[in-house]
Design goal:
mainly alpha, elongated, 196 residues, 12 helices
Length: 196
């Protein structure tokens, strides 16, 4: 990791690859996307610091909790960072996009809960979520409810549709990406042998 930082001068080429530059100018100006990228860099810096002092908190108790349920991984910034790094290491780009989508939806839901219902930023962010899904993951049918909610302009329907899309992305991660990550964590902690 240190060699990569010296060679590139930043984390983007190592961790974000092609995702650091979006094809769509919408994402180059996107508030929600920028927030997720900033959080991502903060987590990467935290991971670098943790790796220098022993790899973070990968205690057997945390490994047990993280391998018990995907929601325990998604709910923990440390576990989510470990999951993201695993997906990057394994070059599971679709799963990386699903995790990124889940985080963007989470950010939207958090921001929407603190804004006035008629704030135009809610609609803009919801449209960016649809655009992200269109460009990065095959979520065409899954985005129909959100498209209808956006067309209605009703923030309650938009929030519900984003919440549903977030759950769908988590379900897809549960099927592919998460099981492999669990095996990786258990092996790393010495709780799983190569034959299992």
């Amino acid at each position: 990791m240190q060699e990569t930082i010296k060679a590139t001068g930043n984390y983007s080429s190592r961790y974000l690859g092609d995702r650091s530059t979006r094809r769509s100018p919408v994402f180059q100006r996107s508030t929600i996307y920028e927030c997720c990228i900033i959080e991502h860099y903060q987590l990467l810096i935290m991971a670098e610091c943790l790796s220098r002092v022993g790899g973070g908190n990968s205690s057997p108790e945390n490994v047990r909790r993280w391998t018990e349920n995907l929601s325990n991984v998604l709910g923990s910034p440390t576990a989510r960072l470990r999951f993201r790094n695993y997906l990057i290491l394994r070059e599971l780009e679709n799963e990386q996009a699903l995790l990124e989508f889940w985080e963007i939806c989470s950010r939207f839901l958090l921001d929407a809960s603190t804004r006035a219902a008629d704030n135009p930023e809610n609609l803009k962010m919801a449209q960016e979520i649809v655009q992200f899904a269109k460009e990065n993951i095959s979520f065409d049918a899954e985005m129909n409810p959100l498209n209808y909610a956006i067309a209605s302009g009703d923030i309650k329907n938009i929030v519900e549709a984003v919440s549903d899309a977030k759950k769908i992305s988590a379900d897809k991660l549960k099927d592919k990406g998460y099981p492999e990550f669990c095996r990786y964590l258990l092996k790393e902690a010495g709780l799983l042998r190569d034959g299992n």
